[in-house]
Amino acid sequence: MRLDNYFIKFTDNLAYLDLKETVNYDLLNDIPLPIYVSDIKDGIMTGAMADTINLENFLQGMLINIAADRDFLHNDQYKAIIAHYLPDVSKYTVSQAMDQSYDDINRSLLLLRAGFILNPSDNYNAYLYARLLWPMAFEVEDKFKDDFIRHALEVLQETISRDENFAISYYELGNIYSNLGEYVKARSYYNNALQKSDKDEARDEIRDKLTEINDNAEIEEALYFIGKSDYNSAIKKLTRILSARKRPDAYYYLGVAYQNINQYSNSIMAFENALDSGADFREVYNDYAISLYLAGREIDALNIIEEGLSLYPADPRLTYNKIQINLNLGNIARAKEDIDELLTYDDLSDEILYNLNVIKQQFNIERP
What we know:
Layout: H1 3-7, E1 14-17, E2 33-36, H2 55-68, H3 75-85, H4 89-100, H5 105-118, H6 123-133, H7 142-162, H8 167-179, H9 183-196, H10 200-227, H11 231-244, H12 248-260, H13 264-276, H14 282-294, H15 298-311, H16 316-329, H17 332-342, H18 350-362
Antiparallel strand pairs: 1-2
């Protein structure tokens, strides 16, 4: 598991001590005992003073060691010791992790991870482990981000496979997918959580989540229809959203849908509404200009492109479409200026670069 490569760094938070022979813990003799560094009291830095440390410190150290390094040399011995002193390890890790969660989130995560490794079938420990695990995806190196989310999803799905009525796992799956922007999936899991929850407070919280994401889920479904070229279904769904709330992104996608069925007057109106309601993304200017151009309003299209370029001056697609319109209008000199400028960009797509070269040959345009 790739996450093992992430958690191994937490072995740096452990120190290893040896008990004096006079200490009355036979199982703990003759092996190095891990202890979380923050648990070491002032002055207790050597094995000679290890007898003053509480047994629980060593048990937590062993759990953290197992979580951080699954292949550690003494893990089998640590597991035997933990089983001897902690007959219900999951109950213990849950309790200790919740006590620590506000002070040391990494420690809580490691304890729950140990509980999951030692007893993966305990649903509540697994749920808490996943609950702390997935938000870390947005704080760690990018190379581990997908692994954190994937593992959390797997852990939660396993809890549901063991108990299809385990409502809090459905809820947490909804939270994950909502944060990923997959609102249709999030809505489905929230609805399952709502059906399976029996506490009024929890149900109210889930309803709040559903209200929060419902429009996003509807837009996601509209995008699905657009992707499938089912533009009429997309228009119906987006119109229903806009009848309740004037969302700029919904207006934008409505314009895209109308544009694809050649209803340019409707698409122009939708793009105008998108801008009037606060759209702040470059695509709206580009697609708005395309609809104006296709409706025979070339000058209006150029004006919209200029408006977009005033906000996004380095956008190659806007400049490229400006070139195309000027060429169509016979403004060769203006098109040439923009071609020369665009060819200085380092991030041109292969498509735009190829098309510019075709245009230069077609219109006998050469760079100076």
